[in-house]
Fold this sequence. Notes:
Blueprint: E1 2-3, H1 8-12, E2 19-20, H2 24-43, E3 61-63, E4 67-70, E5 83-85, E6 91-92
Amino acid sequence: MADFEPELGQMLFGQPGQQYSATTECEILIDSLRYAFEATLRSVGERIGPFDGPFSNSGAAFRCKEFGVWAYQWGDDYQPCNFYHTYTGLAIS
């Protein structure tokens, strides 16, 4: 288990710190989804930089019927997770 240390912006906006644990397989899965997502966007002509997608610290979001991905949101809204898999209920922060 690791302690998440919020960055300055998160502290200023009052976002809570969290404790989390992630297996190596989980980290590989999220990285694979990120690369596949970005490659898909590029294949349809989207120009996406290293900080543009919902897997980055951009505020971007994506949702389809299978999963949703939300980058850190800088607003006041509570954000329960960054990744949610619809069918299994898997939530990753």
